[in-house]
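Re-run with default settings, no changes from the original entry. Doing this only to confirm the output is reproducible before filing.
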Amino acid sequence: MKNGFDKVKLWVKWRLFPGLDLATRCRYRHVSRFLASGPIDTLDAGCGNGALSYAAYLHGNRVIGVTKDPNQVRAARALFSAVGTDPKRLSFEVCDLYDLPKLDRSFDQIICSETLEHIRQDDLVIRNFYEVLRPGGVLHLCCPFALHPEHHLGRVDGPEDGGHVRDGYTLASYRTLLEPAGFQLVCKIGLGSQRLTQLDRFLRNIRNRTGDLAALPFFLITRRLQQLDALNPPVPYSLYVQAVKPLPAAKEPGASAA
């Protein structure tokens, strides 16, 4: 009986994937479009429910999603196993981003979405990304926009207890973080308009009061309205950037090794 109930839960979860949170769905829809396609190696750093890991998988990538939360790993493995993904191309592991080099693997692409704002030593994690990324590889980084009213609360160095250590990032603070590590920032896009934020807040309030099941009809309505959401609003909810690890400089003809 329990096994049958678990199958029903997984079926419902998959039908609603990647969840009822409209901001998460916004990132899934838009960030997925910028991922590279083909048989490349992708790391989803702070994979959560595996939404962007799965997006990279659909692009033909070999993907490993990591998080330090073993419950998230178990849930992701169960869900994607149930829907028949290839475990040789999509896997999930427990790994703290501070310990990333211990994976002893390198990648062509790294995804890190809504994770870095929870980490105190974000500069160390960025250096770890640079270390495990192959030359010419791309880091897809998405975090809360620090000046959005819902994020702009004055947090700069909070405790690493699961909440936000800092409010988020601006384009300037991204540059301050990424460029000293060696990354070149090549693209930035604002995600989440005021309309989306209002719809998401409305839905979250209903979910908190009545639960996800009772909120489902409202979700189905707001999901349709969410399609009207546009990129690069004046004050985005999240700020997505692409940063590249440069290729080694080519030697000039006739140059000799020192």
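The mean pLDDT is 92. The longest strand covers residues 133-144.
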